[in-house]
Amino acid sequence: MNLTAHLLRSLDALRPAPVASAHCDGPCGVYDPASARIAGEAVLSMTKKLLDLDMSAEGAHNTYSRFVAIKEEEAEKVKRELNILWHDYFKPQHLEQFPELHTTFWNGAKQASACKTSVSLDAANELMTQIEAIHNMFWASKGRDIPWYTAS
After folding, report:
1. What are the structural domains, with CATH classification, of the chain?
2. What is the pTM of this model?
3. For residues 151 and 85, what is the distance between their CA atoms, to the nearest angstrom?
4. Average pLDDT for runs of 10 along the chain of length 152
5. What is the sign of the dihedral through the CA atoms of 37, 138, 100 and 24?
6. What dihedral angle (degrees, nearest 10) is formed by the CA atoms of 94, 97, 103, 107?
7. Residue of 68, 25, 52, 39 whose CA lies nearest to 130
């Protein structure tokens, strides 16, 4: 053991740091499924734009590529935001309140992946349905009745 490590251990033994604990990664109130909803709405919007695009128009292939890139990026954001809620916010005691919690999150993430690999209005609408179910569980876990709404 070097001198620095020895000194630090000695100091810690004389004056140990207080134990800190937290039930989440950040202060309460920082979690919200709204970011997943916004990203899901972007997936739905890009899907609609892709389906409506006139591929014979000048520049359509470039526009199509951009819309696909945005759709896939936003679907990945949905997966990230859902995983944050699933892994950081929800705790074992929530499983008693929501026995379907794991299945709902798994289905939501899988649906976001399905939206990345297709241009399907049904898939994008189902993604929004999955996000709504998570929204409802999240706010119910807090004992709050926050209505589901979409910007579009």
Report:
1. 30-141 (1.20.120.400)
2. 0.81
3. 21
4. 75 72 57 96 98 96 97 98 94 95 97 97 98 97 94 82
5. positive
6. -90
7. 39
